[in-house]
Amino acid sequence: MSKLGSLGAKLYRGEVGYDFIGKRKIWYGVSILITITAIVGLVVRGLNMGIEFEGGAVFTTPKTTVSAAKAEEYAEKASGHDAIVQELGTGGLRIQIAGIDTGKSDQIKEELSQDLDISADKINADLVGPSWGETIANKAWQGLAIFMVLVVIYLAIAFEWRMAIAALIALVHDITITVGIYALVGFEVTPGTVIGLLTILGYSLYDTVVVFDSLKEQTKGIEKQTRWTYSDIANRSINSTLVRSINTTVVALLPVAGLLFIGGGFLGAGMLNDISLSLFVGLAAGAYSSIFIATPLVADLKEREPKMKALKKRVLAKRAAAAAQADGPATEGFQAEVPQQDDPEDAAPAGAGPRNQPARNRGRGRPSGKRR
Amino acid sequence: MEREYEKVATPKKSRGAGAQSKPGRALSLIVIIMVALVGGMFISGTFTPRLGIDLAGGTSITLEAKNEPGKPNAINKTNMDTAADIINRRVNGMGVSEAEVQTQGNNNIIVNIPRGTNEKQAREQVGTTAQLYFRPVLTVAAGAPTGDSSASPSPSASSSGKATDKATDGSSEKATDTSSATPSATATSQGRAVTDALKADSSPSASASASDKADDKASPSASASADPATTALQKKFTELDCTDKAARTNVNEGAKPTDTIVACGKNSADQWEKYILGPSEVNGKDVKKSQAVINQQSGQWVVNMEFTGSGSKKFASTTSKLKDQQSPMNQFAIVLDGDVVSAPSVSSTLSSNAEISGSFTQQSAQDLANVLSYGALPLTFHEQSVTSVTAALGGEQLHAGLIAGAIGLALVIIYLVVYYRGLSLVALASLLASGILTYTLMTLLGPAIGFALNLPAVCGAIVAIGITADSFIVFFERIRDEIREGRSVRPAVERAWPRARRTILVSDFVSFLAAAVLYIVTVGKVQGFAFTLGLTTLLDVVVVFLFTKPLMTILARRKFFASGHKWSGLDPKRLGVQPPLRRSRRATGPAAGPVDPKEA
Predict the structure, then answer these.
(1) Contact A128 B103 (CB under 8 A)
(2) What is the CATH number of the domain that holds A251?
(3) I need a surface site. Which of A223, A358, B93, B460 has the fewest CB within 10 A?
């Protein structure tokens, strides 16, 4: 643990660190790949909507000795869909099955009557409408839209519009991945799933905001110095809050992992699987995207700003000069500076700067720090 | 929204004002809150949160749409869906009771309400059609033969009925149909005579029949011109016995809002009266919202209605017509599902608000307001069956969830202890405090507003634990960062707090924004979710401000933490504070390079 603690210290001081911003293209690629897979899965396989959304068939039986759990098994075997079975006060059973039309309902009724040992004409079959009707769905969409607009406005005011956009992209990214996983795994979408998705929506933004808050703080007064570009500082900001991010994610994921793997896996609780899967995937995606997607996106957008471009130029010039001073022949450094627009620039200072020359910078950097 | 804005904005400005100075007070405040909540659980006698229908089962009510004469095609999918939607809002008024409403077959609606809900109340809420009409009163009469038994209408009753009927019918038709607001002299006088007579009639029986007779003679002239429909109406009015429930419900069957109808209602003395009412001029669709309030003058519970824009206009024109009329034609009747709930008289033009008074209790006023707020059902329903249903998920799901959640929590605790050592005590105590607050609040909200927990909500609460823990982690990491800067524990805690507080508030605000918007805009389960999210977010802020921070301040004074004991989690050595050699170098240029931008 002391190792972890000193790793935290090193991360904090920027002595070690992963170059999140420099390697952003790799992670963008990874995310795009996952997102495309999710979208393809969504388009090809579609979502398997539960009875709460689509309605289905309901079978009411007279008094029977068959247990609800057993009946559920029969119903799922007969229909191939998830079934909800409830015991009624009369001693009978109410069996609801999603995605059934009239024709198939008769066939299932026959099978059920054999399995449950009740004559078919005593089982009452009917079609049920969705309990999660269109109004609920429409209102939910409406609420989401309003929330998104408000949160973008809020983030634009509290931080800046670039962060608002990046947070929104990260959010859409998380939701798409989670929904895509549902399509691919083929789990039935229940109200529980939707609640899970909404939880993720809140969590994903929360996590992104925590990272942005540190980014905003660290980049204050960035123009008054010439040692770091925006990307450098963004990168350091991620690294210095990395311990927090890891701890938070572990703490949030552990209970959900418990629900998913122990609750769903060993104890075989079906509905728990639905909810905890969406939570697990979404929480993981949310933690990932706030570090690997949202912050690099902000850096990307920010570096396009004229002020930041100018800063970058100054920083590079200064670094080149320093390199020239140290190495003697100045030409190399200047040559390297001109084409340095994209990749090499990011990789070099973020990796080399803080890591390789901490002592030298420290002595020199201080006065400028005090001024601020 | 703006209010919440300020909530976030202000603490930023008033830096340092928080709980730093008197940590003991904040701690005792939260302890008092906890004790009060636990005490509340004992007083209310509920110790577990109410569970949703998926976990606890409940009652299933099957409603069947009734075919109404004159509306053969009323039972269709659109109307059924609308009805289901309205019923859903009625039973889920606050969105937290987890009731489920769905259509079944062509003409049934199933309402599932979780165990522990007030079943009788719920059944009234779902079954009420809530057709609300404001109709001008044409005639009032005692609803039942005075002093007589209700079952069989006595001769005197029918005679009194006839008298009134005929007398006023002519006048009233004139008054409303022409809407000239100046009824003929004869009509008015007759109307007044009749009412006066009836007023006298309503208490002493002997004299009443006499006065009836007198009116009877006067009436033929007025009723001579009555057309067959009016005659039928008179007959109906005459025969109507308000004390007979079946008669009351049947009398208006098939009546259209534009018809003149007869109806019953109780007066303030709790006696039945019958009315002839003109065509509806304002109806329930014109009501924007409705709430139960206590009338300042009478001290009684009443239901206040606020009209929409067009409703206000209609109501104003109606009342301006009525105010100049003689009694009883200056009254308008508020007719709910065929019954006259109240029939106030109008003395001035009213527009935006109307009040229904009557013998309401708080509960019945609130129920009526609730029903009126969500509008009338497009169809009339009657209860086909009421039966109990077991949990759809069964106990084993909840069990599995709880066991798995407990294992997950145990892992979290182990992780925190290993990583944060002594600090984990603060984290665990805070989690415990947050757990106690969440549990007691959810338990108490069960009886208070019908809050019910379903399985997704249980899972959500488990995730919320993670989010709460995040606030501590943000705080702890800040403290450790400050120690890495070379500060000793106490100043580190105080310096770390303002920054951690800002982060916590900003990020919690986003969560709370999500909760508030979703709660206001959405209905049903999403609303329930939003409620839970908002609750846990607020609790997170409360716990961090009133518990974690003060506790940290107090502990930072203890030697164990202040000296940076190696098990305290604040050991400078373990946190990688630079060895002395380096520190001396830092003295000339203390904060290291990377910190620069932070210092800004």
Answers:
(1) yes
(2) 1.20.1640.10
(3) A223
